Amino acid sequence: MAGPPRQMICGLDYGTVPDINTCLRAAYDANYVFIMTPMVHPQYVQEFISGVAKNREGAFTRPDLMLKSSDWNRLIIGKLSPSINVDSPIPHIRANSEASLSQELSFAAHLGIMTVTFKLNSCLSQNMNLARIIYDKMMSPSTLKFLVQVPMENPLKECLSHRTDEEVSCESPWEWWNGFRNACDTDRKLRVALVVSSDLPDEAEINRWIGEPVRALILPTTIFLNNKKGFPVLSKAHQNLIQRFCGLNVRFIITGANRADKLAFYQNYLDHLWKREYAADGPLERFCRGYEDYLQVPLQPLKDNLDSSTYEVFEGDPVKYTEYQKAIFQAIVHKMKSSNRDTSQSQNDNCTDLVVASDEYSIRNNKELIITVVGAGRGPLVRAALQAADLAKARVRVYAVEKNPNAIVTLHALKTDVFGPRVTIVACDMRDWKSPEMADILVSELLGSFGDNELSPECLDGAQNFLKDDGISIPQRYTSYIAPVQSAKLYQGLKAFYDKEKGPLANFETPHVVYLQSKYDIAPVQPLFTFSHPNRDLIIDNSRYDVRTFMVQQNCMLHGFSGYFDAVLFDNVTLSIVPDSHSKGMLSWFPIFFPIREPIQLKAGDEIKVHFWRRCTSKNVWYEWTLSKPVPVAIHNPNGRSSTIELF
Question: DSSP letters of 245-263?
Answer without folding.
Answer: HHTTT-EEEEES---SS-T
